[in-house]
Amino acid sequence: MIKESKSRRIFNRFNYLFLSLMGLIMLLPFLHVLAGSFSSGNAIMQGKVTIFPVEFTLLNFQAVLSDIAIWKSFGVSVFVTVFGTIINLLLTSLMAYGLSKPNLKGRPFLILFVLFTMIFQAPLIPSYLIVKELGMLNSLWSIMIPNAISAFNLIIMISFFQRVPKDLLESARIDGCGEYRTWWSVVLPLSMPAMTTVGLFYAVGHWNGYFNSLMFIRDPNLFPLQVKLRKLLVESDAEAMMQSVELTLSSIEGIKMASIMLATIPILLIYPFIQKHFTQGAMLGSIKE
Amino acid sequence: MTNIQERRTKPIITSKEIPLEHPNVKMKAISKKKNYFIKHWPLYSMILPGVLYFLIFKYVPLAGSVIAFQDYNLFKGIFESEFVGFKHFENLFTYPEFSQIFNNTLLISFYQLLFGFPAPIILALLLNEVRKMVFKKTVQTLLYLPHFLSWVIVGGLVINILSPSTGVINEIIRSLGGKEIFFMQEPDYFRSIVVGSGIWKSVGWNTIIYMAALAGINPQLYEAAEVDGAGKFRQAWSITIPLLLPTIMVLLLLQIGHILDLGFEQIYMLLNPLVTETGEVFDTYIYRVGLVGGQFSYTTAIGLFKSVIGLILVVGANKLSKKMTGNSIY
Predict the structure, then answer these.
(1) C or N terminus of chain A, fewer CB within 10 Å?
(2) With contacts defined as CB-CB under 8 Å, which chain A residues touch B37?
(3) How buried is residue B92: exposed, middle or buried, by Cβ count under 10 Å (0-12/13-18/19+)?
(4) What's the gap in Å between the CA of B34 and the closest CA on chain A?
């Protein structure tokens, strides 16, 4: 390596400084809210909380966790994420397998049929009316089915399936495998990285999304976590919670912070795993260009 | 795959085929086509659920957009409701509300393009200069994190940090002797908050695609430039930027196509009645007035307007980009 010039050294120093700062900006809001969620109401109100808890208390978490509605919502979100993702992967991979055959008659038309939905979106109201007509309102189907296949994920999967070696498909055929058997026992196992990536795309979408539930779900027993959390944060659900615990140490702000942290923890727990696959996925999308 | 290829190259001699001496040639052609589908029915049956999905949830609503030309009545339904022609589209341009939300949408989108689009490019270029792998990985891990949080959580964080009584920012303002600012209630701050929180959430994630493109640049180009005496900035300008241009153009085109979609979840989370004059955008308006308020036809007209503009923009920008830079998305 050539000896670095002086200006280069200065640039490097600033660069490291700047990037560290960026990293901190991403982290600090969490640390602050985490600290707040373990602090007493007084300490929060007086602005004493920075990134360390002041007057440590568990009452905020106690208040949130003693609310049965939160647990119900958590259950709904887990259900929708697991089953929704299974439906997504099944339908997407089946369609992608069929469309990964380059000589299939009608393939160009079908690809266009899918791509068109990406550049020209149907308006919201007719999409809502269809879900209503199908009788899905107020059921968890309305969250899972209307987003069963994402055109973007479908394209990623097609391009991945096309990279499965043709020899393997050929030998599967010679061994008497039908298309379904080949899909399930040859292509899917060979495409685990793509399945994981796309699966995670879908799963994070289910866990984080709230628009569909906001539109389609009226029954409070079926609210997913994000809808419930939203009610807590911007409507007055947090005040109602206050009634149930001693008012001295918990506070509305504290309860809000505790619920933010509770909704974040599941994501943080799987984050190291997600990060690896997501980065691959984001690049998969770029390869097809 | 091989099945199909074989069919094309080899003469067909399977017993299931129609005998060659069949007298009716036309008949034979039809049966041949039919046979193709019969032979490959497993493949088509795999595609079918997906096709049905797109038909029912994407194309039927598109056809259902005719209610934009009707006075749609929930009880009469789509076939009985009265046709009114372009009435709702004319209303778009006469309702003062419409020009306001159109304005808000365009402004927020414009600021997102101006500040949000170049941010990940600059960040990726800076990250690319880092040689210490541990440092790079750590920073990247932190940068990607907000992408995985829902808008409810990020909105909650934003509201918390900007809160006038307990928020950190106002704490700092107070300690500097200033008076607290009610950020979430001031229409003037809303757009900045939307653009800022959007950048915070996605800037790190959006670097990935640029990092991938940067990793693909041949290091010999830089070595050659070094020998020729080009400094780091000259190298960035003459090698890195031109080689990144295709990626930049494709992403720019995609974003231009979505200029009127601002992402309902973010704005709706941050929006409150005090800031609608600067914060109400198409998506939230369609939800609030259309879905909740029941003005189905009028808001479907808005939705159609939005989709058509999006289509025109993406096709136009694509053409322009093809002419100017040779890059396009199709």
Answers:
(1) N
(2) 105
(3) middle
(4) 12
Domains of chain B: 96-324 (1.10.3720.10)
For chain B, the average pLDDT equals 85
CB contacts, 8 Å: B265 with chain A: 209-211
Kindly give, in sequence order, each residue whose CB lies less than 8 Å from that of residue B80, ignoring residues fewer than 6 positions away: B73
* B83 strand-pairing partners: B70
Longest Cα–Cα distance of chain A, Å, equals: 75
Confidence grade of residue A6 (pLDDT, cut at 50, 70, 90): confident
The alpha carbon of residue A7 is apart from the nearest alpha carbon of chain B, in Å, by 10
pLDDT at B3: 46
Inspect the interface and report whether the beta carbons of B212 and A286 lie closer than 8 Å. yes
Closest to B46 (Cβ–Cβ): which among A12, A179, A233? A179
Complete domains list, chain A, with CATH: 6-64+244-268 (no CATH), 68-220 (1.10.3720.10)
Residues of B in contact with A257 (CB under 8 A): 160
Q: CB distance A124–B200 less than 8 Å?
A: no
Residue showing tokens 């200065």? A10
pLDDT band at A250 (very low <50, low <70, confident <90, very high): low
| Tokens linked to B303 | 């939705």
Residue of A nearest to B272 (CA): A234
A184 at interface of B, judged by CB pairs closer than 8 A = no
